[in-house]
Amino acid sequence: MPPKTKQPERRPSRPVTITAVIDPVAALASENLDDSLYLYDTNKAAGSTGFGTPELHSRVTKGDTLLWNVIPLECETYAAITDIEIDPRVAEPTRKVYPGTDIVFWTAEVKQDLTEPLRYRISFLLGTVTTPFTPTARPALAGPADQAREGR
Amino acid sequence: MAQQHGIIVLFDVENALRTRSLAGNTYWFDNMKLFGSTGEGTEHLVTIVPGTHFMDGSQATEQVLNWLPAALGAIPPTVPRNYLAEQERADDRRTLDQLASLNADGGVSDTDLKRLQKRVGKRARKPAGGRGLTAAKLLDVTGKTTSSAGAYNYPAPVITDITGPAVTEKIMYPAQYGSPDMIYDGWYWAATVDTSRPGEYPYTMHVQLHELIEQNDEMIWESVDLTCESTLKITTDPKRNGFTGAGLGLLPLPAVPATG
User: Fold this and answer.
1) pLDDT lower than 70: segments of chain A
2) Exposed e or buried b for every residue in B175-196, given b needs 16+ CB within 10 A?
3) What CATH number has the domain spanning B5-74+154-238?
4) For residue B145, what is the nearest residue in chain A, using CA coordinates?
5) Chain B, 120-179: which have a CB under 8 Å from a chain A CB?
6) Distance (Å) from the C-alpha of residue A116 to the closest C-alpha of chain B?
7) Smallest Cα–Cα separation from A51: which of A37, A33, A62?
8) Stretch B149-175: mean pLDDT
9) Mean per-residue pLDDT for B216-235?
10) Quick check: B78 and A73 CB within 8 A?
11) CB of B189 within 8 A of CB of B174?
12) Tell me, what's the ipTM?
């Protein structure tokens, strides 16, 4: 099928979702998350990179709503984001739950355009362990890329 | 029997609908990384299927595969699948309650009306003869009512078939099963594997995504059928005793249990 000629204007009516796929069993067994965390986002078309690694660089622009959530590979093991630490001048993530459930997501609005990638720390609670798991490698938010915009 | 394989496929639905292709838009996982699966989290997953055989060469274990699709950027599968329906009903109840209290007050302000209208939201119809999705209120990715076609939560991708060399060569026998487990909508795909012929066998997964389109002032779910590929790697080892590492036989237990 030929590509559609008319592309809808990209209004961020749907958040840029950053999904952490976690293998909680492997993380609990090895007591670290470095080889058991796969990050993805929904902004590949805008030029996000590092898919499937803990070093995802998400392309975002000022005004975007961000949403972080978790998909555990083993749905009987608890896995949730417990904290996101990022420069508050850029975003102030808050913890929320899907209405009527206790399943956590985090959300924030991007307050300014970024000229350089901004790394942040994301921590998870897994199983019944009370100490949060934080991967050594850091994901980042990155500003809009000119060449990525042309590519669409 | 060894543990069952869970193969999770994460679909970048937005990108797949935009490019009308699953190339580069699927991410595959399984629970066999420790046993030698490769390509976890990429679209080039090779799922290891470790089989065993008896001394005469006959198959000693059967392996079972299960496939679980999920949509990237949607409400995650940890939220029960009936969540959307529950949420819709709860929302309608709240709207009705508020409507009732408006009448009681006597006066109706524009802002009240607007708020209620927003809550009523929009419903998407399924195309005539279509299957899979029920006509339901549109919810956004946080579970709130939305009337914007650009904000709806992507429905979970639906596997419609599994084909390819792994099937035609009778390495695996996939089928769709019904299940009382609501998390996966009561339906899932599973297969048993013949592990007597080691090798790498590709297979094709047929998937239906759903795109919301506006037609004659109506929202309609349009199904988009796409395919993607993955591979099974079958190995077979002699069946051995898990306690001794040696051949089959009696367990090395003392003839008389130790006392105490």
Assistant:
1) 1-12, 145-152
2) eeeeeeeebbbeebbbbebbbe
3) 2.60.40.420
4) A99
5) 140-144, 148, 150-152
6) 25
7) A37
8) 90
9) 89
10) no
11) yes
12) 0.85
| Cα A76 to Cα B168: distance, rounded to the nearest angstrom | 34
Tell me if A60 sits within 8 A of A86, measured CB to CB. Answer: no
d(CA A126, CA B224): 36
**Location of structure tokens 């060469």:** B57
Q: How far is A52 from chain B (nearest CA, A)?
A: 5
CB contact under 8 A, A3 and B141: no
CATH of segment(s) A16-141: 2.60.40.3910
Give start-end residues of each CATH 2.60.40.420 domain in chain B. Answer: 5-74+154-238
Minimum-distance CB partner of A19 among B24, B73, B151: B73
Domain ranges for chain A, please list them: 16-141
Residue pointed to by tokens 């019904």: B178
Report pTM: 0.83
The rounded distance, in Å, linking the Cα atoms of B3 and B63 is: 8
Residue pair B59/B50 in contact (Cβ under 8 Å)? The answer is no
**Cβ atoms of residues A132 and A28 within 8 Å:** no
